[in-house]
C-alpha cells in the first residue's frame, strides 16, 4: 500500500525509525539482528507484524492493513 507510514519498533515496543512506503508499498529499514515489530499506518487502516532478524540480510515482510 503506497503512502503508508511504516514504523520499526524494537523488541520492547519502543519506536526506532519510520519511513513512508513507495507507490508500490515497498519499504526498507536497516536494523540489527533481533526481534522487531513493523507497524503500518495508512488512512485506510493500520497493520502490524512481528519480525525476527536472525542475521544480516534482506527480509521480505507483508503487513496487512485493515
Can you characterise this structure?
With 66 residues, this protein is mainly β. It has one domain (5-53). Helix content is 0%, strand content 44%. A 4-stranded antiparallel β-sheet has the order 2-1-3-4, with no helix packed on it. It is globular.
Q: Largest sheet, if any?
A: 4 strands, antiparallel
Distance between the terminal alpha carbons, to the nearest Å?
A: 11 Å
Kindly state the percentage of residues in helix. Answer: under 10%
Low-confidence stretches: none
The tally of helices reads: 0
* N-to-C series of helices and strands: EEEE
Overall 3D form:
globular
Question: How much strand content do the residues show?
Answer: 35-45%
Number of domains: 1
Q: Which whole number gives the mean pLDDT?
A: 93
Radius of gyration: 11 Å
Number of strands: 4
Give the structural class. Answer: mainly beta
In order across it, which strands form the biggest sheet? 2-1-3-4
Outline the secondary-structure elements:
Elements: E1 5-9, E2 15-20, E3 34-42, E4 45-53
List keywords for this structure.
66 residues, 4 strands, four-stranded antiparallel β-sheet, mainly beta
Short description:
This protein is mainly beta and 66 residues long. Helix content is 0%, strand content 44%.
Amino acid at each position: 500500500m503506497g503512502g503508508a507510514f511504516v514504523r520499526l519498533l524494537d523488541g520492547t515496543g519502543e519506536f526506532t525509525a519510520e519511513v513512508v512506503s513507495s507507490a508500490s508499498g515497498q519499504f526498507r529499514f536497516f536494523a540489527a539482528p533481533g526481534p522487531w515489530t513493523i507497524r503500518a499506518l495508512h488512512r485506510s487502516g493500520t497493520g502490524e507484524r512481528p519480525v525476527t532478524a536472525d542475521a544480516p540480510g534482506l527480509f521480505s515482510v507483508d503487513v496487512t492493513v485493515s
